[in-house]
Amino acid sequence: MNAGMGTLDRRGPAGSLLPVLIAPASPGEPLMDALARRRAEIDAALATVGGVLLRGFDVADAAAFRAFAAGFGHPLLSYEFGSTPRSEVGGGVYTSTEYPAHQSIPLHNEQAYTREWPMKIWFHCVTAAPEGGDTPIADSRAIHRRMPAAILDRFAPGILYVRNYGDFDVPWQKVFNTADRADVERFCRDAGIRWAWKPDGGLRTSQLCQAVETHPVTGEKVWFNQAHLFHRSNLPAEVRESLEDLLGEENLPRDTFFADGSPIPDGVLDEVRAVLDEETVSFTWRAGDVLMLDNMLAAHARGPFRGPRKVIVAMAEPHGNQGRF
């Protein structure tokens, strides 16, 4: 599978095969030709390794990237109930998370903080940053295998996500793509989300979601949550202290708790982050690269960067567990 597929400056744990590198038959081969010629190989790599990197293909523009992602047979998804700022490029293609360049985004599976998520996610590097800006990835099965048993047991009932939308997080109007409270309440009711409107016009939501999931095709257990990303310990210490003083602990923009509502100690999530670090795979983007992941088998992140960087994203094939909670 790897023969004759070019080079990849990959850094990661011993034994990891992420990502499978696929190169064109000749320089500049159109990306859509890869879909027709190597679809079976791509599908097999996703199901076993969890991700592929298509490098050296011609991706003319965002429309070509969109056509490639849509060519796998599922309509591209809109970014609903989002947790980070993005801009729509068009037709189900979005910018990657628009956080400041100096910030890292920890490893996570897309929308694992909800009960419904995309099974497939694509990234296209339009402009590679001159320094940093990689998209680290990791095998969610390996993370689950490496996670301490005590943490798996404690998280087994699920994770409670609490969000306060407003000046210090993405506004609820953007998260729910509406300014109509009735639309928000309808979405929350359908998704099993509890909500409360605040006197100042803000919104608080809470939802119990999975910590571990079973892949619907492979039957394998995967670590599948964003407890470490939403938890207050993910904030820089000085920012956390300021927000706790200013807003009160119950009004932090986002936080996570054990399923029974009790606090998750910082130290528990330090252990989780250590496991994620041990399983992280990094490579340097090249302009034109397309990374395709099975969103349950592989997590992704973002490194800090300097200079211009543009990565666009598409998602498809919704899957969820609405009946479990």
Structural class by helix and strand composition? alpha+beta
Please outline the major beta sheet. 7 strands, mixed
Topology order in helix (H) and strand (E) letters: EHEHEEEEEEHHEHHEEEEHHEHEEEE
Query: Compute the gyration radius: what is it?
Result: 20 Å
Number of strands: 18
CATH architecture of the largest domain: 4-Layer Sandwich
Q: What's the CATH topology name of the largest domain?
A: Double-stranded beta-helix
Q: Gap between N and C termini, in Å?
A: 40 Å
Number of distinct helices:
9
The overall number of domains is 2
Helix content: 25-40%
Q: Give the integer mean of the pLDDT values.
A: 93
CATH superfamily of the largest domain: Clavaminate synthase-like
The first-level CATH class of the largest domain is given as Alpha Beta
Shape: globular
Protein name: TauD/TfdA-like domain-containing protein
Cofactor: Fe(2+)
Pfam families: TauD
Domain TauD/TfdA-like: 33-314
Which features would summarize this protein structure in a list?
325 residues, alpha+beta, Double-stranded beta-helix, 2 domains, 7-stranded mixed sheet, 4-stranded antiparallel sheet, 9 helices, 26% strand, globular, TauD/TfdA-like
Structure characterization notes:
The strands form 5 sheets. The protein has a 7-stranded mixed β-sheet with strand order 1-2-15-6-18-4-3, with helices on one face. A 4-stranded antiparallel β-sheet has the order 10-11-9-14. A 3-stranded antiparallel β-sheet has the order 5-16-8. By secondary structure, the chain is α+β, with helices and mostly antiparallel strands. Residues 1-5 have low confidence and may be disordered. It has helices spanning 31-48, 62-70, 140-146, 149-155, 172-175, 181-191, 227-230, 237-247, 266-278, and strands spanning 20-22, 51-54, 88-90, 93-95, 105-108, 116-127, 131-132, 137-139, 159-165, 194-197, 203-209, 212-214, 221-223, 254-258, 290-294, 298-302, 305-306, 310-320. It contains 9 helices and 18 strands. The chain is globular, with a radius of gyration of 20 Å. It has 2 domains: 20-142 and 281-324, Clavaminate synthase-like (Double-stranded beta-helix, 4-Layer Sandwich); 143-275, Double-stranded beta-helix, CATH 3.60.130.10. The termini are far apart.
